[in-house]
Amino acid sequence: MKKKVSVGLSIALLASSIPALASAHDHHHGYKGSHHPNAHKQIQSVEFTSMKAPSTVENMVKTYTDAKVKVTYKDGTVEENPLNYNQLFLSKDKIVKNKDEMIAAGTPIDANGDPIVDTSVPDKPSNFVSDAPDSNSMITIAGKSYLISHYEYESMNNAGEDVHGLPASMTLTQVDRNPKTGELTVNNAKKIDFSNVNGLWTPCNGSTTSWGTHLGSEEYEPDARAFEDPSSCSYRDVTNFAKYYFGDESKANPYFYGWIPEISVDNKGNASVVKHYSTGRFSHETMQVLPDEKTALFGDDGGNTMMFMYVADKKRDFSAGTLYAAKFNQTSAENGGAGDLQWIKLGHSTDDEIKAIIDKGVKFSDIFETASEPTEGFTAVKTNASKKVEYLKVKPGMEKAAAYLEARRYGAILGATSEFNKMEGIAVNQKDKKAYMAISYENGSMEKQDNGVRDDIQLPARDSGATFQLNLTGGQADASGEKINSEYVPSNMGALIVGQDLEKPDAYGNTAAPDKIANPDNLSFSDDMNTLFIGEDSALHTNNFVWAYNVETKKLSRILSVPVGAEATGLRADDMIKDSRYILSNYQHPGEDLDGKQITAVDKQKLEEAMKNGIGIQETGGVGYISGLPSGKIGAGSKGERENDHHQKENDHHGQEDDE
């Protein structure tokens, strides 16, 4: 048995967190697996009781929950227990063993596997450490549980300057589970090697597949058109990346980044990475696989973005398939808006075909002709890649390169809608054939535009955004009349949960109603509990929250608060991990933009001091989970859950065979 790694929390953090940690260990979490007296009873329903928003300096600077979970059993027994937040580690905690050295969990590494060093203060070089942990996947291989975590970016260097082009990273952490309480602890951790795919660019959200792999993301893909101008930010960022990662700026190529990486873990606990080039290049927020295990939907983050769908040729294999983009036909502007979706085929390809195009060194100017003003034969498009309207024409024979390397620009040329704003997380409700999509800000490109470009989305501004519901149907054809080979094609979408903007800040500095969701980002759905979990990325809420929304009862409950200025990330509802339930939840960049808040309800200076003296301002982020959820199945269990259990047993069985 391997020696466990001690998680080194700072003294200040321990001082501020002792009550919460004690609560977590005292109650565990409420439910103790098969040792709990009601463990073998059939659960009828689960209901979350909302917590209040934090109102004191003490609560505003910590990650905590006062929410409860009410469980009703089929025999009429009712139980109510507290939820608890359990921090596994901070991104600055030295839990990672890397070349016989212990380094912080959020440390990026270069192509040789060495930590990337911050030399901004010449006489005090130190490793960069990200303060932005994001997506989590909990997977079990050969009887061992692993947590894959993203580290999205590093906010600033030691000199207090913004960092540009720093490579990102992921960490693979083996966690042990207490069989009596379900409590998770770190066993060991290591960095995941991305050198075979040219490194990792800004991994944001992600998802866990039913076959036990992790789908990551590369957000805000560098603009390949601007990269051809050495004075551009795109050239600076990609060149800096190449210097940091390869030690060679001549290897800078914007088309290396903007893809979906899939991470697999073998029976020995080693991770391997592939990038799926056939799923298209854009600002990947997340890739959500639908229940047929071959159809996937994507979040495309930023302004003037696009909705994409991919249908793989084979189940569980995203190395070949067909890429589509959606045209939004608005049907309502009320209550967040609604519209029908028509799908435009961009093309069919394989990872190998697209990688070969990239490896040839193709540039944007090899793919498109451009004009500086409206010109016959050129299409006017407005996409996230450029702040200006572009006039583009695909060069003969470059359609495939355009479709996959410049999916958003090519989609706009073909008539797809490139007007979504801050399209974030996606989750799927298998039982009801629904998907959910977070549109964090309904403003900007989603309002009526007058720029000479097609204007499909014309909604009133709602800065606090909305969470949409998408209906998934089969038997659909694309815009050309060709049948789409999927029974899970989104046919329409409408706002399900909307935020409420405030005319002026309240006493806590909120500019959106604190008892409603503002700027939804991470989404995760529990089929078992009929509950959609929603994490916020909001500058409109002074403290961001995680919410639980029961899609049957329509009840909305606040279940977690993260530190002031922080974003709630890494959200994943894991219904059954060895008979325990967890809601994985992180936080990143605590204290960000605090100085700009108009706060009168508490002493703002004391609030800032408490942040600095606790976990610090934008110094580190936290990785953890919500516990206290009931064990055992709810009702008969969904078909998807039963299939996941079967797949997990297959993984464990194969792992045991290999170990033997």
TrEMBL record:
Residues 639-660 have a biased composition (Basic and acidic residues). It comes from Falsibacillus pallidus. This is Alkaline phosphatase. It comes from the Bacteria. Residues 1-22 form the signal peptide. Residues 628-660 are annotated as: Disordered. Keywords: Signal.
